[in-house]
Amino acid sequence: MILTADSKRRVTLPKSAHPGDAFAVEMPHEGLFVLTKLEKPSFRVKLARENGFLVAVRGKPITMKQTRALMDEFP
Hints:
Layout: E1 23-29, E2 32-37, E3 46-50, E4 53-57, H1 64-72
């Protein structure tokens, strides 16, 4: 399949991609773009103010062990 970018560097994806879908773009080397469709999270997160800070609230608390494991995934 050949895609052509318009004047704003946009391309139209095939019909299997839906509005709102998110993609990770990787450029392993010059001239090669790899799109990977990202899965939507299975839970909803709301923003709320707690002690003067804006925080993400999931509705279900997580443990410190889970928090540390998630933070270890960051680069």
